Amino acid sequence: MFNRKNTILHAAVFFVFTVCGTVYAQTITTASAYFKTVSEYYGSIKDYEADLDLSAGKQQMTAKVSFKRPDLLRIDFSNPADQVILFNGDMLTIYLPDSSAILQQSVQSDSGSGGASLATPQGLSLMSRYYTVAYETGQDPVPLDETSDEKVIKLVLNRRNTAEAFRSIKLSIDAGTKLIRRVDAVTPRGDEFIFNFTNYKLNQDISDQRFIYDPPSSANNYNNFLLSN
């Protein structure tokens, strides 16, 4: 029942967690060095909020992302309306209003490949371990796309082995604000997921209460969904 939605959610969870640890460089040398400084900068950010547009095939999703160090994450969707993804450092909770379903996954905080690691600045370090990093067009800023005047630094990450969920990942980092603007990921099957982040607000002293969520009690619960096919 949830096969297609799980594919999209797996990608969304993976990338939103990953992006929580990313962006800035004062000296651009190699792509790997730039990628490292990007990760280190996100490690200095206390919290942020941003608007998110997600494209998964023909499906379009919009949401607001809230993140607070070290590993609190909440995504409130306006499309699909009322859908929520919440990670509190130990438990991943996803509410799917259309299916009246609550998906939950317990995450080991000491797992090197678990959601907790990807939700921290160390997540980018893990990606550099599992993916090679290169400039797509060189270290000079280029337009975000052919219709945009916004200048970004583009990185391409290619997986080192076939165990990784994505064959390649492209990161577009705004050359002015030094924040990630776009993530473009392709699965081994050729499915493409595009994440656009805009309207960042940094270090707003977001309350911990923001990351408390009680899904409707009438919804059905499905545990360990990330481990299910």
Provide a short characterization of the protein structure.
The protein is built from 4 helices and 13 strands.
Write structural notes for this entry.
This protein has about 230 residues and is α+β, with helices and mostly antiparallel strands. About 20% of the residues lie in helices and about 40% in strands. It is built from four helices and 13 strands. Helix 2 packs antiparallel against helix 4 (about 120-130). The chain is globular.
Instruction: Give the SSE string.
Output: HHEEEEEEHHEEEEEEE
Strand composition percent = 35-45%
Give me the number of helical elements: 4
Residue windows where pLDDT falls under 50 for at least 5 positions: 21-28, 109-120
* Structural shape: globular
What level of helicity do the residues show? 10-25%
Q: By helix and strand content, what is the structural category?
A: alpha+beta
Distance between the termini: 10 Å
Radius of gyration: 17 Å
Defining traits:
229 residues, alpha+beta, 13-stranded mixed beta sheet, 4 helices
Topology, please?
Layout: H1 3-19, H2 31-44, E1 47-56, E2 59-68, E3 72-79, E4 81-87, E5 91-96, E6 101-106, H3 115-118, H4 122-130, E7 131-135, E8 142-143, E9 151-159, E10 168-174, E11 180-186, E12 192-202, E13 220-223
Parallel strand pairs: 6-13
Antiparallel strand pairs: 1-2, 1-12, 2-3, 3-4, 4-5, 5-6, 7-9, 8-9, 9-10, 10-11, 11-12
